[in-house]
Amino acid sequence: MFFAVKRPARHDQWLVEKTRTTRAKKKSTHPNKQGFAREKSAFLTYIRVECGLSANTIEAYELDIRQLIIDLEHQGVAAVDQITPRALIGHVAGLRSERNLAAASVARHLATIKVFCRWLVAHGHLEQNPADILDQPTRWKRLPNVLTPKQVKMLLAAPAPNPDRPDEPPLWLRDRALLELLYASGLRASEAAGIGLTDVQHALGVIRVLGKGAKERLVPMGKPAQDALEAYLDTCRPRLERPGGRDGGRVLLSRTGRPLERVAIWQIVRRNAAIAGLKGVHPHVLRHTFATHLLAGGADLRVVQELLGHADIGTTQIYTHVDHKRLRDVHRKYHPRR
């Protein structure tokens, strides 16, 4: 089983320090220069070609494995056949003690380690799986941050024309269309970035979305989002296009005419949230808000699961705990001592 994992936000300084120490140690104690390189490369090729994982997931696996290898070499492990349960336990312990990662982040690292070690055993690089001894840390359900309807209205109204630059393309129309889509359709940032012109079905009012695991789904837009998108496509996007087809047929373009990347979408959301006076808002907060508001309005949990593209309904159930008013109403209606 493979897990879609996210790239951790705090890793650069840890990698630099570990890499320096490891390189110095390898020069003095380990003449084998190949180390883990061959197996690491073969594993990444396997998950890319045979498993069909997304580029973001592959990047996250590669980062986790690189951190694992650096730490193993720091412990004196020079090749895959020298990996021991003790070495893996030391690495996992360091994730908490040295890097102060949360339990959910440690669980993600463990998922990568387990998959990598199973692959090593399956392909004859190891006789026994040293990761079998590792247990998943206790994970708890953290309630997601959700905006109120009033806060959503403030955020969606944040993009506005820039009177100081009347000759430039009206990028505020793009920003408003993006925010509307994120809230109206519950899209991930990567899904919004990947929307193509042919994915927008204006007559039906839906968007074809390519989610995790290359799974397609159709998601309704809603009238406000559709109006904002059409205004952007009619007025702004033609002025962003450049000759040579550099836009890749994508809907959302940057100032230079290239497709918006996931990082740029995060920046747009945060910038407009700051304008609206909101803190801690990023694209996934709008996705959380989308799901919570649907359930609060009476939507069926299975329908919300389909709209979000969740493979497991357990992932969707977290949103049933966010709407405190609904929980109180259910309690008053059904509890015998209400």
The helix/strand order is HHHHHHHHEEEHHHHHH
Mean of residue pLDDT values? 84
The N- to C-terminal Cα distance equals 44 Å
- CATH level 3 topology of the largest domain: hpI Integrase, Chain A
Total of domains:
2
- Describe the sheet with the most strands: 3 strands, antiparallel
Given the structure, what is the number of helices?
14
Low-pLDDT stretches: 3-12, 22-33
Kindly report the spatial arrangement of strands forming the biggest sheet. Answer: 1-2-3
User: What is the count of β-strands?
Assistant: 3
Q: What's the CATH H-level superfamily name of the largest domain? A: Intergrase catalytic core
Give a concise summary:
With 338 residues, the chain is mainly alpha-helical. It has helices spanning 12-29, 37-49, 55-74, 85-97, 103-122, 149-156, 171-185, 189-193, 223-240, 262-275, 283-296, 301-308, 313-316, 324-334; strands at 200-201, 206-210, 216-220.
Give the SSE map.
Elements: H1 12-29, H2 37-49, H3 55-74, H4 85-97, H5 103-122, H6 149-156, H7 171-185, H8 189-193, E1 200-201, E2 206-210, E3 216-220, H9 223-240, H10 262-275, H11 283-296, H12 301-308, H13 313-316, H14 324-334
Antiparallel strand pairs: 1-2, 2-3
Helix pairs in contact: 1-3, 2-3, 3-5, 4-5, 7-9, 7-11
Question: What structural keywords apply?
Answer:
single chain; 338 residues; mainly alpha; DNA polymerase, domain 1; hpI Integrase, Chain A; 2 domains; three-stranded antiparallel β-sheet; 14 helices; 3 strands
